[in-house]
Structures are given as structure tokens and as C-alpha cells.
Amino acid sequence: MPKFMSIDTAKQVATSIKEHLLPNSPTSIPIIFHGGEPLMAKVEHFSSLIKTFRDVLAPDITPLFGLQTNGLLISDSFIKLFNEEEISVGISCDGPPKVNDRFRINHSGKGSGKKLETILNRLQEEPCFKNILCVLDVTSDPIEVYEYLIQFKPRVIDFLLPHGTYDNPPWSKDIFESTAYADWLIKIFDRWFFHSDGKIKIRMFEEIIQNTLGGMGALESLGLNPVTLLIVATDGSFEGVDTLKVVAPNAHILEMNAFQHKLDEVSQHPKVTMRQLGEAGLCATCSSCDLRRSCGGGYLPHRYAKSNGFANPSIYCTDLYKLISHIEHSVRQLIMSQKAKRKSSQPAG
User: Distances from the Cα of 345 to the Cαs of 332, 335, 339, 342, in angstroms?
Assistant: First the structure.
């Protein structure tokens, strides 16, 4: 793969998007840059990519740009570009340096937490800074991690479960019946739900609350809504969700690209449609579960086993069940409490 997407490739990808969307009269589309590390491209090239997408999609479609980065290459020039082009920036950070540096290290084996902390302090007052993505480390103190992250004033925090399958579980998920991840998240949920001012959203929790109240969620890793995102590699190749790499080598590859295939064709590929089956795509265990609407079977790659493919509950099934049950109970209790307060405040008669 090329290290960066060329301008010619970006033009072709943008053209493919426009051809696919125009018949449906859309007004906008999210375009998220991620990697690898997208900021390895220089500011000038990044600016050219943004201009290319805007020029090709105009005037009918407005691109809504986002960026997920480890943050270490952010400079004043990048920040200026992000603000001018209204690019929403997400930073990957797993907690204080002592937590973050367990897994996020450079090629010399050294941690990046202290440098990242300086950058987050620089970013927190910038309009472009939107969210922090945090991969759970259940050996850490959840409240310490939460309080560390909120000091940088992100609009949103995304807590992610480490990727793995039944055949290759994460190092800390060797006992599938354990609920260590749920226990970790519940401590943060209780602090956030009952004792915060609501200014910072935690996407996983809000998604579960939305599903509990009968709404429509947006996360691919929870709920039954069809997935509406597609990965485009730097050479213009279309891919299924990139996290399918944890299943097997090339499991994410579609063997289709923007130069030879229309997005209408890509949307019919089995690796795309299997992420849009909703309840029909669940295994028997998940189909009979009372929390299936909120859980949705968990994230697709986490359901995989060599023996029977994706016909399994998530490797985090016990965690998800405990977490969702706790959140649903908390929401119902709050609703009942508010109803009781309103009733008691009404004048007699």
C-alpha cells in the first residue's frame, strides 16, 4: 500500500462517492481520516486532500471531515488547518502516561504519554478538538483514567474494548465468563451518570441509553442498526471494516477499488451486507437474549471463531450483559424517581 493517498486517487474516490449518493439527494457525508497514522502526511498534502474532496463533491454534497490520530505529530500548522477546514479531531489516549505507555510506545520502545499530555493541554481550547478514544486496560483504575481524560475537556469519550476473537482473545480476556470489563465500565458509568454535569458525552453509555429508550443508535459495535460505513485504503481499494484483520489475514479485503468498481456494487459484497443484517445476523444465543436490541450481539469481529465463523455471541458477552443491564436499571430508576418528584410537587386536588 502507498503510505499516503494520492490526489488522483482522492479524486476518484470522491467521484465514486458522488455517483453513489446523488440519486438519493444527500446534503452531506462524513469522511474520516485514520490509519495507521494519518498525520504522517504533511500539512500541504493533507490540505490538498481536503480541497480535492470539497471540489469534487461540490455543490451538491458537503463533506463533514473528521480525523483520528495518536496526536504526536500535531503541530500549530495542523491545528490551524483543522480549525479553518472545520475538521473534527479525535485523539487516541488510554489514560495517564503510566497507563497509556503500557501499549502505546514508539519504535524505540519508549512511551508517548508525557508528550501526548502536552498536546492534549494545547488542544483542549481549540474548536477542532472533539473526542478522545480510549482502549480499556482493566488493570488500571477506571476512575483515575476517567478523571484524567475529562480534564482535557473533550466533547466525547469513546471507550473501546480490545479487539480479539475466540481463537485469539485479548491478553486480559482469557476467561470468557468474567465481567472485568463490565465492572471497570460500570464504575465510570455511575460517576458519569449520577455525578457529572453532562457536558462530556460517553458514546458507549449514550448508545445503550438510546437503545433502552427505544431510539436509534449509531455505533457499529452495539445495537441492531445496519452499518453504513466503508473503509477506503490509500490506493483506492474498498475494504470491509478494518478491524476484521483480527479474524484472519486479509479478512477485510473486498478485492474491489474505486477505479474499477461502483459503490453500488461494493454495497452488495457479502463482507458489507453481513454487517447490515441486524437481528437476522445473530446467532441462536443472541436471538433469544432479552438485551439483543441494545447489544446487537456485540462487535462483529469479536464474535468470530474458526469453528463456526461469526455465529457466536461476542467474546465480551458476559461483560455486555452486565453493563447493559446495569445501565437500563439506572435509567429506569431515574425515570421513576423523576415521575415521583413531579407527582409529589403537584397541588392536591
Answer: 20, 16, 10, 5
Give the list of residues 6+ apart from residue 343 with CB closer than 8 angstroms, or none. none
Tell me the backbone φ, ψ of residue 32, rounded to 5 degrees.
-110, 125
> Torsion-angle region of residue 269: left (phi > 0), alpha (psi -120 to 50) or beta?
beta
Residue 217 has pLDDT above 80, yes or no: no
Helices (H), the chain: 7-21, 43-57, 76-84, 97-100, 113-123, 142-150, 180-195, 203-212, 263-266, 270-273, 284-287, 292-295, 317-345
| Other CB atoms within 10 Å distance of the CB of residue 1 | 9
Q: Average of pLDDT values for 113-131? A: 95
pTM assigned to the model: 0.90
CA angle 317, 320, 324 (to 5 degrees): 145
Identify which of 278, 280, 272, 291 has the alpha carbon closest to the alpha carbon of residue 224. 278
pLDDT per position as a tens digit, 14-72: 999 999 998 888 889 999 999 889 999 899 999 999 999 999 999 999 999 999 999 99
Given a contact cutoff of 8 angstroms between Cβ atoms, the answer to whether 134 and 157 are in contact is yes
Q: Give whole-number Cα distances, 88 to 60, 66, 122, 124, 313, in Å.
A: 21, 5, 15, 13, 33
Q: Is 293 exposed, middle or buried (0-12, 13-18, 19+ CB in 10 A)?
A: middle
Task: Assess whether pLDDT exceeds 80 at residue 342.
Answer: no
